[in-house]
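Here we describe the complex-level prediction in full. Unlike the single-chain runs in Section 2.1, the two entities below were treated as one system.
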Amino acid sequence: MTVTDDQVAALRAQLAGQGDEHYRLFNQLDPQAANIGYVALVAGAFFEAVRRRFIKDGSPADDAEIIDFVTSVRLRLEESESKLDPNVGETMIKIALGKLPPEARKNIGGDVGYGTQILLLAGLIADEDLTSNELDEFLARARYFAEEMNS
Amino acid sequence: MTDFSDIEVGDEHIELLRRFLSDDPNDPSTFDVSTAESNAIAHNLMAYSAFAVAVLRKFSPNFTIPEVIRYVTDLRKAILRENALQINPRVAEGMIRAVLEDQTLKDREPYGADNEAMVNAGFAVLLELFHGAELKGPELDEFLRESADYARRWLAVQQARQAREEASAG
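The structure predicted for the assembly as a whole is:
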């Protein structure tokens, strides 16, 4: 499985807050390839961003910090806060940290899990306030993880 | 479907709630009550009504959804510090917003969980709000009266609905 440059560009635009550019690039993606490659890239980026934020000195953050972060993302969504189920959000983060086993997401549908990753990823990257170069480096690592996880 | 036709909220139910809120909830004698189903329903209704009154006192008449979200977040973090049984945030927020008659609430009972999660959330919120208010003496009496009134109004609605359904089925 390969993540393509145009898939990375589409996600980069979203994480850089360039909504219109993101939609333009995303709509140009090959749907079949995107269903695998783009989804894997989002998962890889989510995994990387969660571990950057919530692992310090080799130890995962406590649950209170995770609760706080998911709440902060929901509050940023304002009237759309119901798009992020706090139980799903916290579970996805804990799985990425190894605090819960992968089986913990067995009752979370594919679309819900993906949508949750996107929302949380946007929040994580917004909080990091990355420079353009730092965002490129982050996406390079996310792409590496995505291809490794799906190889 | 629960039969509410012979359910009444009486002094014993109010007294048990008083003991639960005022005494040690781990003392088994607090719950030394008849196990008749009608009594259990009335006890549960009193507990739910106390939860509802506590929520209304805290959040109404003007509330925002962010306030409810932040309240439940802070409660869950406090519960974590106490190493107590966690509550489901979606359930707690849904129950609070339902009491407040939030017209934007699309979620419905049991809020993606089950009855046990609702009971846990309801008790956790009730105890936190009640102890935070530090009600004693006449203020406690007033709170219990309001809770009993809420329970009786709720019961009257259910009994009327049940009577209508039985009349149209008959």
